[in-house]
Amino acid sequence: MKVDIQNHVDHLPALNGITVSSTHDPLILDETCLMASIIYYFTTIRATLHALSNLLTRSNRMASKAPTVTDGTANVDAKPSEIDRELTISVITEADTEDVLDLLKRFFFKDEPLNTYVQLGECKELEKYCTKSLGERSSYKAINSRGEIVGVILNGTIMKPQPGDEPPEKLATNCAHPKFRKIMALMDHVDEQFDIFELYPDIDRFLDCKILSVDTNYRGMGIAGMLTDRTLEYATRNDIKLIHVLCSSHFSARVMEKMDFTEVFRLPYADYHVDGEQVFEPEKPHVALRILTKRLDH
Predict the structure, then answer these.
(1) Listed residue (230, 221, 85, 91) closest to 145, CA to CA
(2) What is the pTM of this model?
């Protein structure tokens, strides 16, 4: 028995400077063997954990260099290499109708604060409203190097009513879509409260900027400003002295203010009621419908 224990102890590795006694006393041998075995066990565990820690650290370093995907406003399907900055601004023709509507359905129909608030969804009336002036060739598109439309500004000319003209039909009158009819009723209310031709009696027509929309993947690149600049050039070439923009979005109003447009009318959404109830309460910072204008002859 003494020989078996001694042989076991003799074959243990040197641990942390521990010297195993060469005595053959059974009790000392048993205690020494037990202590050495325990130290050996925990030393092995410590070494394993250290190696595992190094492996995890290296894995984390590798993971930190891997690309990540976020759920922000940008389309996660779009890779940075697919978003090019070789953009061209050109006039929209009626042949572009379907491509323009495709962009609007993916972004404007969903992003515009009033559309979002009423959860508009599919709306043929809004499609018609957006595209009815394309034949004027006063609207513009931003296209990338692959020919994809990534932004639009849709404009139309509004003429000053003449004596004897029939009053224009209310926008909401024949609107079948119940949610869009609420938005059109708001526009009718604004027309009743504000007459731009009274504010500018020397103006016989103006260019109305109806829709401004940019692909979320291309925002922050100045596309809205480029489209507005081209609209101003069109107005100047055609001797149109006033640009008019009705902004339901805080962000579109900011774009126009940066382009030196001036606010001439404001209707806080909290002040617009039908049958005693507030109709629209979009998320902040969209708190008011605003009209901004810019004269081109001053």
Answers:
(1) 85
(2) 0.71
